[in-house]
What does this fold into?
Amino acid sequence: MNEQPVVLAVEGITKRFGAVTALNDVSLELRAGEVLGLIGDNGAGKSTMVGVMSGALRPDEGTVSVDGVERSFANPAEARAVGIETVFQNLALVPTLNIAENVFLRREQYGPGMLGKTFHRMHKSAMRREVREGFERFGVTLPPVRTKVSALSGGQRQAVAITRAVLWGSHIVIMDEPAAALGVKQTELVLSLVERLKAHGVAIVFISHNMQHVLRVADRIAVFRLGRKVADIDVHDQTTGAHLVGLMTGAA
Amino acid sequence: MAQAESAGRSWRKPRAPREPRSGGLRRLAALLANYQSGGLLIALLVMGAIFTSMSKNFLTHRNLTVILLQVSIVGLVAIPQAMLVLSGYVDLSVGSVAVLAVAMFGQMARVDHHSLALSIAIALAVGAGWGLMNGVLISYLEFSPIIVTLGGFAGARGVAETITHDVTQFGFGDKFAYLGNGTILSVPVPAVIFLGFFVVGAYIWYEMPLGRHMMSIGADKIAARSRGVSTKLIPCVLYVFSGIAAAAGGLILTSELDGASPSIGIGLELQVLTAVLLGGVAFAGGRGSLWGVLFGILFIGVLNNGLILLNIGPYVVNLAVGAVLVAAAGADAFYQRLERIPVAAAEPVAAEPEAST
It folds into this structure.
């Protein structure tokens, strides 16, 4: 169905922690503009997979390829450099800085002229404008960009963190439980953002315990159980939550 | 001055919100947060007006010069201190580092008869070196900032006493006297140095990425590090600057007194910290404005000066400074509480039509 190029391919990943095999020969494929749901019980290997894809963990066996090029990440910064960003639950936003300052933290733009070039004077208005335009492009409605992050709701913070990843050129975004502990409205904010990013060609790995959320946004769902991928299902075939739970628990 | 001008925008004039905000409390909290240092400025102006009406000696060029001169040493040392506190650190060793630098200076210039320039350079280097030691221990080895600099508070003065044997060196000559007693365009040299440092400090704080990075370290070090902020180098460098500023402050005071007294810098760390905290920099780090610190410094200076002009004793001055500091803490706690109130209404879900899937 999806004729887009494969942007992320992991093949034959095995990861052991001592005697425990957390991942056992797992392969995944992700195309541009596709949302891959990742589900499984606790200890099924989801978090280990996220670690491998985001550069936090090194697999014992197997390869990770981004845009067709095989990569080996020493840390998350290296993964970020080739366009993979993981939005963790702790979000890495600074509460006392405002939205625009957070989006541009460590990527500040300098102003024109000598002050900017030599004395690193920031171009604050340009940065604010870019953030505003970025949010507009992805249809994110947030309070003014000068609002401090501490004044935002959980869903708004998620939206800021996710949009920041995409604004900085990540075309593969991994979201670890993005809608956990959010209210209905805030969940809607996050899920609708996922859908819009998809329409913009961003490839997304969506990890969640919530079957409804996964079924709503995912094109495909990979089910993990005991370190193996037990199913890789196209969601458009009348998939039901009950069926997925069966796969997760091994009842199906 | 253009930088300082634009840096001050946050408190100078109200700006129209770009998008409608909702929630009266939220608006009030934002207002208080934006104008926290503005409140201090108003208090400063009101106090000035009261002193002006009560004493005709207050609002004179001569007296304002005296105030500026009196605050300049505390102010100079307060600028790097404010940056440290903003980043979640503190330097309690500044008073002792000042006297240590001065002791080295006295020893070099008067006992060993080295040149003035070399003696000054060595004194500043001693300050920088002590700051570097603080920085390495605290920032890289993650020792407690309070304990390490409290150790420096005792230790550096101890080293100074060993050098001086409690003897005051004096007679450094006219050239050196200019540092503390000269004027440039009828502004005292120490005040010029302080204001120069302030302009540079405000530029760093508001106009350079470094200011935000300091704030991010103080607010959430893990988040800052995960974005690539240099969470170790920045505090370390700030400690070095704090040491240099302390040494410079000690030298200026030595010049004013024409004496490298062993009692220089006693209580300096607390005066500096009072100014920083009065100025609204959160002791836990992550929040604060350098303009607020400037107003805090001037507030204490004006209060001191005015009460003395009115012949009210120094005990009352201390009491007043203490009371104002506690009041500032109360105001801060109040607006923090307001800011924490979440506003659900400020959260419209995007109504934009979906692009095709």
